[in-house]
Amino acid sequence: MNQYANDQIVLRDEMVKMYQRQQNSKVFNAMLFENLLRPAPSPNSENGTIVTDSRIVSKLVLINKKWIFPVPSKNVFTKQIDSATAKLNEAVKFAEEKGTETYFVFNPSRTKALMHLYPAYLKTDAYSISKQYFLSKLDSSVNVVDIGNKFDTFKKAELEEMYLETDHHWNVRGAFTAYQEMIEQISDRSPIFSDEPMALDDIHISQLTDGAFEGSYNIQINEMINPKKADRTIIYEPRIPFSFSHFEVINKDGSQTIQSFDEFYGFKRGRSTYTYGAIFGGDRQKIVYENSQANNDLNVLLLKDSFMNPLTPYLAQHFNKLTVLDNRYYTEFSLRDVLTQEHYDMLIIAFHDDNLFSGNYAFEKKAE
What is the mean pLDDT of residues 261-277? Predict the structure, then answer.
């Protein structure tokens, strides 16, 4: 029976691959006739990629055999957003009552920022409407750091350079830009924190040249885009390596296997494969950075989603102690308990603007 089941799984996987290859063939280019009828567009480097090839493979959109996106939703999920914002308002109110200065950081999601790459029949303003609806439901006392406003100033071609091609995350250029804006905005507003972000002059910049990049979307469609050519992503390495007086990581399952920061984070040359998670530390229950060289004694708590993974060691340069939590990976979690058991001078809640009602908003949850 087990052998039969295994054989069926292998057969199913092969059939899925065959179907995906068929969807990726030339005849399935949704823009085939449009390309024949429309005049050739004049190239303009500021306008970004000219889309000439679009097809849907297993509910993912392949653009120019280079970019992969989800099929966008055209719905605005008001009830779910109402529930999430109510939880966020309550969490911020409790933190402020505990004397913890609080900021909600809204990072620009890839789907919304790169909507111009979708073919016309898939484009939607639902993501912009959803974001604005979300913001409208926040209490006026919530200190919002909207990184999307900064990204809105960039040209389409510049935005394309800030996100991965076959993965749902941004690359380190986009993340670093967000980090700079975050530090500048919090420093401008905070009565207890003042500092300058790191500059590009502090960074050694290179690019992935060897090895395969396994993007989260590309994996789902059996790497229809060659991972050895996809995402020759930018690499940022501080000229003065990050150093912490104490560093601790607790994995998603609660175990502790990471012994050092160098083991946890950063580009490791010579590997055959790379992923967003492998380069930037991946999702963990908890990360603790202690930095005795910071210019303050602030104890800061960060609640985050995976978009923040590349940023955490950069943020840690600015605080005496930074504790990073991802509540999705706790069976039980209480932000109230966290803020009660230890005093935090500052709380930063940072999610991307397509993450409007996920498990990240379960600030109080009990084991099922």
Answer: 96
